[in-house]
């Protein structure tokens, strides 16, 4: 009789802010991502990333394959949420029923998998947010 295999229990991990490396996100100028905790660090289910949206930067309309839970850490910026006809992919501006929300520190968002969304920071200060996602590929599809 086969012996069931078991998944090793995860070990606690502490990562200091100095340990986090930020990289530019190719989908948008002025957006940087740092992976705080992920499967690379032993997290069995979720990854937590920190994004910084520079003043004046925008992220074009796109979808992701997985859900995103976000928590705004600092700044104030616009998040657009809508369907494919709801955003101008070049500017991220809402059209034909897309809804835009101004978010600030302390606000939380749920962006379900496949939902069209975009970001725009029209302020003079950077915005930053945490984003939790299931481990695995978080493929982004820019809308044309």
Q: What share of the residues does DSSP label as strand, in percent?
A: over 45%
Distance between the termini: 55 Å
- What percent of residues adopt helix (DSSP H or I)? under 10%
Tally the helices. 0
On the 0 to 100 scale, the average pLDDT is 88
Order of helices and strands: EEEEEEEEEEE
User: What structural class do helix, strand and pairing data support?
Assistant: mainly beta
- Order of strands side by side in the largest beta sheet? 1-2-3-10-5-8
Uncertain segments of ≥5 residues (pLDDT<50)?
none
Largest β-sheet summary = 6 strands, antiparallel
Computed over alpha carbons, the radius of gyration is: 17 Å
Shape: globular
Number of strands: 11
Reconstruct the topology from this structure:
Blueprint: E1 22-24, E2 31-37, E3 46-53, E4 58-64, E5 68-74, E6 76-82, E7 99-104, E8 108-111, E9 116-120, E10 127-134, E11 140-142
Antiparallel strand pairs: 1-2, 2-3, 3-10, 4-9, 4-11, 5-8, 5-10, 6-7, 6-9
Report what the structure shows.
With 144 residues, this protein is mainly beta. The chain has no helices and eleven strands. The protein has strands spanning 22-24, 31-37, 46-53, 58-64, 68-74, 76-82, 99-104, 108-111, 116-120, 127-134, 140-142. The chain has a six-stranded antiparallel β-sheet, with no helix packed on it. Strands 7-6-9-4-11 form a five-stranded antiparallel β-sheet, with no helix packed on it. A hairpin with a 6-residue loop joins strand 1 (22-24) and strand 2. The relative contact order is 0.27. The model has no long low-confidence stretch (mean pLDDT 88).
């Amino acid at each position: 009789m086969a012996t069931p295999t078991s998944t090793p229990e995860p070990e606690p991990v502490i990562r200091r802010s100095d340990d986090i490396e930020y990289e530019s996100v190719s989908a948008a100028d002025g957006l940087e991502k740092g992976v705080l905790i992920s499967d690379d660090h032993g997290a069995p289910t979720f990854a937590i990333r920190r994004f910084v949206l520079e003043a004046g930067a925008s992220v074009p309309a796109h979808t992701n394959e997985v859900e995103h839970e976000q928590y705004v850490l600092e700044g104030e910026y616009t998040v657009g949420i809508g369907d494919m006809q709801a955003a101008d992919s070049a500017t991220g501006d809402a059209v034909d029923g897309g809804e835009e929300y101004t978010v600030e520190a302390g606000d939380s968002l749920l962006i379900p998998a496949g939902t069209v969304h975009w970001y725009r920071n029209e302020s003079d200060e950077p915005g930053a947010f945490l984003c939790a996602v299931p481990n695995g590929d978080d493929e982004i599809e820019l809308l044309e």
